[in-house]
Amino acid sequence: MFGIHDFPLFVVSCILLNITPGQDTIYIIGRSMAQGRQAGIMSVLGIMTGVLVHTLLAALGLSVILATSSLAFTVVKIAGAVYLIWIGIGFMTARADKPESFDKPAASPDAWKIYKQGVLTNVLNPKVALFFLSFLPQFVLPGTQPVFLPFLVLGLAFFTTGSIWCIFLATGAAWLSDRFRRYRSAGGLLKKCTGLLFVALGIRLAFAHAR
Question: 89 is in which domain, residue-wise?
Answer without folding.
Answer: 25-30+39-96+109-134+144-206
